[in-house]
Amino acid sequence: MDVVGRRRELRELAGAWERAAEGSPQLVVLWGRRRVGKTFLLTHFAEGKRAVYFTATRQDSEDRQLRRFVERVREQLGEDVRDLVPESFADWEAALRFTVRLADREPLLLVIDEAPRLTSGRSDFADVVSAVWENRVRDQRLMLVLSGSAVAAMEEMLGPHGGLHRRASVERRMDPFSLAEARAFQPDLAPADFIEAYAACGGYPLHLGRWSAERGVAENLTELAFTPGALLLRDAPDILSEDLDWRGGYERVLTAMAGGARRRSRIAGRAQQRIDYTLDRLRRAGYVRVVRAIGDRGSPDPMYEIADDYLAYWFAVLRDDADLVEGGQGEAVRRRNAGRWQTHVGKVFEAAARDHARRMVAAGELPPDAVVGRWWRDETAEIDVLALRGQEPVLIGESRWQAKPLTERDLAELRRKATYLPSGDGTAYAFWSRGEASEALRGHPDVRVFGPADVLEEPS
């Protein structure tokens, strides 16, 4: 099975392998939360190469991990090394030093997946790798790949105080696929149906691959989210547990945000805890993003939102009723939470509209120096899509995940919001909507209307 997307990652891995084969050892660090496709990518890349692929396990002793590592070396390198490999190693430094010697003459790819699990009370695995790399690696034909799903732990290894700081020749974080990238997993779905599929599954290949093009949205949601043991129902806690624990109140903060709290004070109020450390760690790990209004006249206070669409769906729609779903009442829960579901899809569609506007800038449909974002002023007004050239608006847009037609009344409301911005010559207005636009609205020369198909395609 071919790898979908990830061309940049494959290109970087291939380049590192070529350099390693020529005698320039390569240390590669690849990380990202569970389900983004790291293991699939690396196992695909290892095919046909002299390689050892080892996955660390949770809560195993160091001795047990080392014995498993020996087994993988024997299994995957076979007779060439069978007589050289000891029963076990005293520690990970000895294991890595042995592996370095195996690359003296022939290229060797060593992948250590879930590397943070190898840090024990006795040693920090990143420090061990750093010591071996500095003192034992010279011109061996070795490519060592360290991978992990604990995003915060991996980035700490690479940070200023981490053992791998400035050691790696390639550092690449893998995030879930964007909406446009994920289209390749479900090319046969109608655009509106695909946006709903993405809103539930996020950019995770496994989730998207389980979505059936033969079934409707409601049937897919019932199968994947509202059935006891369903994939989308149980996967979010597994993803979060790799990186976070209950002690920091992370779930309470994410639940508050999913419920509509976007300002720091409101998040803290709903979570009923101090959130400075918690929010900062969620941001650094990529679970939360900070959003600021663009332009001088916007609110100075940032907003916070869940950055992962699947996790946002789980917290907004599934989390509070997971026990009811597991108890067999999934269909009733799905119907009861239909409003939350549509609100969530609307947020995903709004983000897609901004991405589409950014692609319009790149394609030359908007001025090349225009920046795209969102704008708000306290509780007075909020604009979903704003393109500014300097401080002058060139595009003011609204996202509407609604089936009913857009009318001139919608345009009048958007023009009202525009009065809070500096006036500009030739400002265009845009709507992104699931529904059609009335003929009268389309008759305005300064108005453009886009649908689900537009946000999935490159601008002409």
TrEMBL record:
ATPase domain location: 5-208
Molecular function per GO: ATP binding
Spans through the membrane: none
Residues in DUF234 domain copies: 314-403
Coiled coil regions in record: none
InterPro entries: ATPase_dom, DUF234, P-loop_NTPase
Superkingdom assignment: Bacteria
PANTHER family registered for this protein in UniProt: ATPASE
Name of this protein: ArsR family transcriptional regulator
